[in-house]
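User: For a reading group we're discussing how well predicted structures match intuition. Take Beta,beta-carotene 15,15'-monooxygenase. Before you show the prediction, I'll give you the sequence so everyone sees exactly what went in.
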Amino acid sequence: MTQEMFAKLPQWLNLEQSDHMEKPINTIVSGKIPSWICGSLYRNGSGLYKIGPTAWNHLFDGFAVLQRWTFKDGTVTFQSSVLDSDDYKKSAKRNRIIGDAFGSKFPDPCETIFSRHSFHKFVPSKPEKIDNTSVNIVEFGDRLFAMTESPLLNEVTPDSLKVKEKVSLTKHLALHLGTAHPHILKDGSMIYYGTHFDYCKAYNFVSIPTQPESSEATFEGAKIVATIPSRWKMNISYTHSFGITENYFIHLEQPLTFNIPRLMMMGLNGTSVAECMVTQQDETMDIHVINRATGKRTPITYKAPNGFVFHFINCYEDLNHIVFDACFYPSGTDTIKKKYLDYLAHNFTESYTTDEAAHFARFVMPLKFDEKAEVDANLVTLPYTTATAVIKKKGKNFVYLTPETIEESPVVDLPRINYDYNGMKYRYFFGTSAFTEGKQLSKFDLVEKRALTYDAEKNLTPGEPVFLARPGATKEDDG
Ligand SMILES: [Fe+2]
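Assistant: Thanks. Here is the predicted 3D structure of Beta,beta-carotene 15,15'-monooxygenase, as structure tokens, for the group to look at:
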């Protein structure tokens, strides 16, 4: 660990184990909190990067820190806690990081030289065993789950923020990676996504029914409802989030991929998950539209320009089209590389900002088109978008997309919507530009095609905005 590197990083990347407040403390409120806001806001994220003499390498690696903000009668209490995952407990006990993360690998020093070189190291590492669930916190039924991109979930006790139970979806399903951004449907069930390293069954959509209140959350009844193959035999797209509409799942097969042979050799080569990623240069982002009732892909493959997406904003159906909005980065590999801590330490400006930038992009996919359609004729007939879809060869089911963007749009990621509008035609979303100049929170109006921005105070970094509807609200943005 380089002290010098951490000295160049902001305070929130320098937190120690002892900096967390497990008992709620009162906060100082500026402004006025509406009296109808009553309850707890939970957050999750990488928050602890150093233990003893060791430190994680990548922004995505840090041990999960849970935060809880409790609102009542205009007052707010705050508490935070390092999640007591098995990965963290092992490291805390030995006062050094032990384990694997996205951009780092720390073997157990207690293994003997002999055992480190013995046969078991030839067994492939298993990313599905990572239980540092640091990416998101999801309410499912009356339970809270800390989630990451492995199919291991930690159920968390709402008051103490401690792990109540570890749930492995691999008990029921053959999956190697998962998502921290499942969708919760209006009936309370969950749609989850998981990746399998066999290219024939690479991308999987999973339906998880509501869990009985009295039982433990074992995720009984979880089943794969749609599986589609990878277009590459040796590479599988990295998937962080996905979309859902009334009748379809939307999957993005993007050119940032996991190289399967490299993943299988991780244990032997001592490489991290990030080092197994490869960008398929000059290849398209393919958008798959999967019928929720049949589990089958629609016959058209939609091809968007090379780029990268962490977060879907929303998707919906409109007049025989699917509209898919995302926060779009021009390059996947760069996005990952620019999040190593040493890169950030060397490239942060004085205000801890970088040139890293995602922007709003709207892709519009016609669900059907006339066989006689002319090459390069725009197949999108929605009147309110400049997004286009064209065929380049007659008789082929490949449709090439160019997205609509918003002129002078602020940089934006970590998007949130009024979730009542998930999968439906909507107008507003909210996001942040945490690492870029200006450090703003933004509210986008997709009818007016403009964004309202709120500058963060100096030395503060805006987090993911969460939309909370006012009780009785009838307008989408009343909250
Ligand atoms: Fe995310």
